[in-house]
Amino acid sequence: MLRSRVLTAALLAPLLVLSILSLPSRYFALFLGIFVVLAAWEWSALADVSSALPKSAYAGFILLLGVAAFEFPASIVPIVVIGVLWWIGASYRLLHEPQLLSPVGSKVKPLI
């Protein structure tokens, strides 16, 4: 598993550096946005979401936030504030509701 991750990183790192240095900002944002949406899809799997519809809705929401942040730069501050508030709330729940956590070695119950 580690070997495949290292190989993937070794292949993608030069692609990322090349895209940072050569692509116009609009195309780099599109390139990066694709990876962010794919990461959102994977993150939903980590949150124990198994159905395609909720996964798609979450990835679509992340895509919508990315487009809003790129097309309307003034929207970045509210997006970041909402994200920070969500993480504060999630942290509070984990600290004050220990039943949300399963024993070591098993999955964490979903927070979304």
Secondary structure layout plus pairing:
Layout: H1 2-22, H2 25-46, H3 52-71, H4 76-96
Key terms for this structure?
mainly alpha; 4 helices; 0% strand
Helix content: over 70%
Distance between the termini: 28 Å
Rg for CA atoms: 17 Å
Please write the string of helix (H) and strand (E) elements. HHHH
* Overall body shape: globular
Indicate the proportion of strand residues: under 5%
Structural class, judged by helices and strands?
A: mainly alpha
Mean pLDDT: 86
Work out the number of β strands: 0
DSSP helix count? Answer: 4
Q: What is the domain tally? A: 1
- Biggest β-sheet strands, sense, barrel: none
Pick out the low-confidence regions: none
Question: Can you offer a commentary on this structure?
Answer:
This protein has 112 residues and is an all-alpha fold. The protein has one domain. It is 75% helix and 0% strand. The protein is built from four helices and no strands. Helix 2 runs antiparallel to helix 3 (52-71). The longest helix is centred in the first third of the chain and has 22 residues, at 25-46. The mean pLDDT is 86.
Concise account of the structure shown:
The chain has 4 helices and no strands.
